[in-house]
Amino acid sequence: HSSRLKRGAVIPSERTLCAALSMSRVTIRRAIEDLEREGLLHRRHGAKTVVSSRLEKSLSTMTSFSEDMRSRGLEPGCIWISKETARPSPAEMMALGISGGDQIARLKRIRTADDMPIAIETAALPVRFLPKPTAVGASLYQALEARGAMPVRAVQRMQSTPITPEEARLLEAPPHTSLLVVERRCFLEDGQIVEFTQTKYRGDVYDFVIELHR
To answer: Each residue of 193-209: pLDDT tens digit?
Structure first.
């Protein structure tokens, strides 16, 4: 399976796979096509098939970073930068629908896949949903689920932006890398806004995929 191979590894030919796995060529070809659609393999006409060196995220479903990475056979991780209770910024006030006198829990961390830095994530939540941000472990959503505040839907916007020297240092990225910035507002079933998150993804290793239907 491609998840057991390093990114960039060459996949054996269909004939070799048929002999090694005792499967028909049709079955092997269909499996390769499925893995290519999922973004796990990359191939060009007349070239070798390799394990994709880029990560793809579908925008058709609401999933966490950890779920995305595990679905691709990668181990998610994080490096915490800060966990604090603070006054909201103007952007956080507007996104969460709160006033400047309210307090928020603000969590900032570097998200990793197989120990490689992928993104810088800053999450802001009203303190009624997360009164003790320092108690959050590896998963913010597990902490929210334990408090009965698991988001059920989200609205997000995307844009690109140049990377700053500090962001390049944190992400171990080349200095001219572009960032894909995703801002997401998450809602509870009753419509309350539970979370506002800004995630800055490395544009050189991360793609967003949208499936369209007529």
So the answer is: 999 999 999 887 777 77
Query: Cα separation of 55 and 40, whole Å?
Result: 8
Q: Are 124 and 197 in contact (CB under 8 A)?
A: yes
pTM: 0.71
**Whole-angstrom distance, CA of residue 134 vs CA of residue 118:** 23
Whose CA is closest to 150, among 194, 111, 110, 208?
A: 194
Q: In DSSP terms, which residues pair with 183 in a beta bridge?
A: 157, 198
Average pLDDT over residues 165-182: 91
- Rg from Cα positions in the chain: 20
